[in-house]
Amino acid sequence: MSKVYPNLFIVGAMKSATTSLHEYLNFHPEIYMSDMKEPGYFVEEVDNIPDNIDAYLELFTQGKGCRIVGESSTHYTKLPTSQGAAERIDAFCQNAKINPKFIYLMRDPIKRTVSHYWHNVKKQDEYRAILPAIEAQDKNEYIAFSDYAMQLEPYLETFGKENVFVLTFEELIEQTDHKLREIFTWLGVDATIDLPAQKGKHNAMPDQFNKVRGKGKLHRFRNNPVWNSISPLVPKFLKRKAISLSVKSVSQDKADDAEIFEYLKPIFQEKVKNLEKMLDRKFPEWVSLW
Fold first, then answer.
1. Single pTM value for the model
2. Is 112 within 8 Å of 283 (Cβ atoms)?
């Protein structure tokens, strides 16, 4: 069987509707998007499920005959955490003689950063209040992943502006059909097809979820090998007590983000100026900045 190679990569940014765009594109009969979203094959800092080239290419076998075959991995625009993705994709494409295209979604950088924080809270990877968490140097990813100029630069330099389609979360949400047809035209597929009537949100944050209490020591103990080995011997009422002491229910909607918005505004005003110069466009839809 001849191998099928991807020629489209949705590279980010995380928490900017990449899952929705992945599904929208997969609806088109000339486009196949891999069933697995976020394979992250071209970064070394994550535990990739397709850990070799054959396993990676298996993700695209069902796309045989499609003009566009793609995948979506926000890990590819997570500098400085994940390095070298653009260079690895370039080497892969040159070896396979592919002319790749890239889509990069950007969201109001303050709102994306706040959403990123709550994403980590939901995963129980973050126990701190929002302002101390974002100020801390060990989590510079919160701000760095919203520095869109920094994340885009390797792709623009390596593949050229003509091969990178940039749009905003806000454009996609407010002008879904128009933006999809723009993307279809850019990809060289039929832009006149009927689009799905229902376009609900994908991968949306739930209203409530559990947050780690305190500094997370009890939570980490509950998730280590020692606890796993003794857990079968612990009475159920003690397990329930341990859970109640280690996590608490929180709601993102009830959080007061005014302080963090004021902290981030001057930071991102400067970064967005660099982005505007790079792309020669403005972003009036990012209302939290102005």
1. 0.83
2. no
